[in-house]
Amino acid sequence: MNIIIKKMIVLALFLASFNAYSAVNETGTITRIIVEGNTMVSVWLSGVDDSTECASGSRWTIASSDLLFKEKVSTLLAAASSGKQVHLHHLTAWGCGNWDSNKIYYVDVTY
Predict the structure, then answer these.
(1) Number of Cβ atoms within 10 Å of the Cβ of 10
(2) How many Å from the N-terminal Cα to the C-terminal Cα in the chain?
C-alpha cells in the first residue's frame, strides 16, 4: 500500500475517533463562581447550555485533581473580572462531575 494512502487512513481513523465523544458547550459571561474548599470550583454562565446527560446542566465544575486546575481557574477569573464571554466545553464521555455537573474540559476566552 502506498505510504500516502496509509497516512490518509490513519488520519481518517483518528478524526473519526472524535465523533465517539459527544460534547456539551455553553457560551456566555460568568454570573457566579463558587470556590468550594480546596477541591472544587463551580461556575455558572449567562448563556443557555446544550442539552446534557448531566442533571445539573447549568452548573460547570473543575476538580482540583484536574491537571490544568490552576490554569482553568485563572482563565475563568480573568474572564469574569473583565466581563469577557467564555465558551465552556464538556465531553460526555468523561462522565459528569460533582453534583451531577458538566466537567469543564476546556475554557475558551476571546480578548
Answers:
(1) 10
(2) 47
Q: Tens digit of pLDDT for each residue in 42-69?
A: 999 997 665 667 877 688 999 999 999 9
Does position 41 have pLDDT exceeding 50, yes or no? yes
Q: How many angstroms separate the CA atoms of 3 and 94, rounded?
A: 34
Closest Cα to residue 89, out of 81, 99, 68? 68
Taking the C-alpha atoms of residue 61 and residue 96, their distance in angstroms, rounded to an integer, is 9
CA distances (Å), origin 33, targets 18, 43, 93, 94: 30, 5, 25, 22
Domain 21-109: assigned CATH number = 2.40.50
Q: Answer with the residue of higher pLDDT: 17 or 35.
A: 35
